[in-house]
């Protein structure tokens, strides 16, 4: 059996599971956005983090890396169990074609799994939706959870995309805005670190926190 998984977020630099092959490339018709809440890794129910997901959009591509697990059913099962715990905020599993640099016509791998999100606040309890660059930056600059700061997730993603030779303008712009927020907060000791636009305990209905938070994101 063979399992292929496409990574566009923290899995790029920290897959966390055993794999046999890693290929840098892209998927078509999707773009990376920071529209998903994280309440148990880089944020909390009171102050959720913003992490990336992908949304469908014609004419776009999303660069990342595809991981392959070969061998037997047990190895594939172990990888999927790990990924489903780690990617618990993603409510969909989508099958896509994966392309390598230099060949945009023929997919390098078909049947690649990617964790995606329903862009609807009614059906997807973790979907935050879009926000202004300034509001997203403030939220990312101030949120933190059991696995660390939200801003570090963004900065590590920025670095990972640079390392594979395919920076994302959206990620770069957001990271620069977060740095501006952090500089502003440093100049104002004691400033309120909770974004004023964040509602009180917006994810209280999801408590208690999951006991199996994976220290990977």
TrEMBL record:
GO terms for biological process: glutathione catabolic process. Pfam families: ChaC. The keyword Transferase applies. It is found in: Cytoplasm. InterPro entries: ChaC, GGCT-like. GO terms for molecular function: glutathione specific gamma-glutamylcyclotransferase activity; transferase activity. One of its GO terms (cellular component) is cytoplasm. Its cofactor is Mn(2+). Keywords: Cytoplasm, Lyase, Transferase. Belongs to the gamma-glutamylcyclotransferase family. This is Gamma-glutamylcyclotransferase 2-2. It comes from Ananas comosus (Pineapple).
